[in-house]
Amino acid sequence: MQAERAIGVDLGGTKILAGVVDRAGVIGETMEIATPSGSQEAVLEALNTVIADVLEDGIVAVGLGAPMNFDRRTGRGVRATNLPLHDIDPGAGIRARFGLPVGVENDANAAALAEWRLGAGRGTSNLVMLTLGTGVGGGIVIDDHLYRGWAELGHIVVEAGGQPCQGNCHGRGHLEAVASGHAADRAARALWGDDADAHQLVARARGGDAAAVAALARIGELLGAAIGSLANIFDPDVVVIGGGFGAAAGDLILDPARASARREAIEPADENLQIVDATLGEEAGLIGAALVGFETLDGLR
Ligand SMILES: [Zn+2]
Q1: With a threshold of 0.90, does the pTM exceed it?
Q2: What is the Cα–Cα distance from 152 to 132, expressed in whole angstroms?
Q3: Residues within 5 Å of ion ligand 1 by Cβ?
């Protein structure tokens, strides 16, 4: 790799992945370690460790994607899901240690940035991305800029008074509560008992099991309700669906979601609505983090 490169760091609840990435999204050397669960200091030190491991000549910036809400006025992370990080700028220590421009961004926003620039949303100006994993994340591109607010699209209400949400969220009937991998786990357990999970639900549906197909169709219908509502606000050129559960369930949820979204979206978004699979897979977070680094270098943030 001769081109300009940044280090992207994808900080997750269970692992930290760092990698050297060029502006075209080509990934070079990578390093992965388990996320320390003990203290804030341990997590910050682990970030420095993985960055030092992949650091090489020609690195121009570092970008960090973290499962945190960032206050975009101050750059400080307010709180993290599943991590002992609270009211902190996680880029400060990296900046001090390596002397490079460092950008920080919510991990789902970073993934949306990657899909927009280099993946399924390439060439569009307005995009909504939903990442369906154990939880539901979201990111929005408006008029060729990543929206840097919270974009917590997993916590919009699609079923008032419905299922309690996950983690620290005290809401009910949020998208994350009804259309995540955990929601699919719950649907599987309701059908076949405590040992069943989302993998089994998807596998049985692919085998033609009517109850499994119906359970995933209901998840898709609620997902589509959220997408229709988002289309009514943002009028996106494309809605990109990513995440491990999203990729596994595929058209089993996307086809019902398309029908439901077209029902809820106002004209002309109903007919024009494009709902597509993400194309960067699990690397979206890493590539997006590196793009955040490049944006920082370029003075775009
Ligand atoms: Zn919630």
Answers
A1: yes
A2: 12
A3: 155, 165, 169, 171, 174
Cα-to-centroid distance, 6 and ligand 1 (Å): 33
For residue 80, the SS3 value is strand
What are 241-265's pLDDT values in tens digits? 999 999 999 999 999 999 999 999 9
Let me know whether 20 and 147 are in one domain: no
How would residue 198 be classed by pLDDT, with cut points 50, 70 and 90?
very high
How many angstroms is it from 177 CA to the middle of ligand 1? 7
Contact (Cβ atoms closer than 8 angstroms) between residue 28 and residue 5: yes
- Could you say which DSSP state residue 75 is in? T
How many angstroms separate the CA atoms of 28 and 297, rounded? 19
Asked if residue 148 belongs to a domain, the reply is yes
Within this chain, do residues 204 and 178 fall inside the same structural domain, yes or no?
yes
Q: Do 136 and 62 lie in a common domain?
A: no
Cα-to-centroid distance, 296 and ligand 1 (Å)? 30
What is the Å distance from ligand 1's center to 77 Cα? 18
Its domain, for residue 16, covers 5-111+282-297
In a domain, 118, yes or no: no
What's the domain count of the chain? 2
Assign 2 a pLDDT band (cuts: 50, 70, 90).
Answer: low
| Distance from Cα 170 to the centre of ligand 1, integer Å | 6
